[in-house]
Amino acid sequence: MFDHVVIGVRDFAASRSFFIQALEPLGVTVAHDGPLGVELCRPDSLSSLCIRREPEESPAHLHLAFTADNRQQVEAFYRAALAAGAMDNGAPGLRAQYHENYYAAFVIGPDGHNIEAVCHEAEA
């Protein structure tokens, strides 16, 4: 269901330490650590939790990314979400900055959260 969940935090060091320690017994490890934050997942999983640095003055945001089986599902999600009242935040397309087959669409839901559908497979 979820590809990844992104949460913004104000105290990045404390949150990073907390999630790494708390999730370690569940087999969760650091998959990527970079300037935006840290990505945590199990070694055998495609789902991840991303902890992002947020400026103190901005509210923490929520980003939900749902797994799509193919690019047509990404496109159908985007159309359905817009029809349901979401605001566009990125039409379906490749996002090569993530990887060569990262095909996603983004919308802003009714509460202002960034909602994504993503397919990691090459075009069929």
UniProtKB/TrEMBL annotation:
The record places domain VOC at 1-120
Keyword annotations = Lyase
PROSITE patterns recorded: VOC
Please give the Gene3D superfamilies that the UniProt record associates with this protein.
Answer: 2,3-Dihydroxybiphenyl 1,2-Dioxygenase, domain 1 (3.10.180.10)
Q: Which SUPFAM superfamilies did the record assign?
A: Glyoxalase/Bleomycin resistance protein/Dihydroxybiphenyl dioxygenase (SSF54593)
Entry keyword annotation includes Lyase: yes
Q: In this entry, which stretches build a coiled coil?
A: none
Going by the entry's taxonomy, the superkingdom of the source organism is recorded as Bacteria
CDD domains (UniProt xref)? VOC_like
> What's a Gene Ontology MF term here?
lyase activity
Q: Which PANTHER family match?
A: GLYOXALASE FAMILY PROTEIN (AFU_ORTHOLOGUE AFUA_5G14830)
- Recorded protein name is Lyase
Q: Which organism is it from?
A: Chromobacterium vaccinii
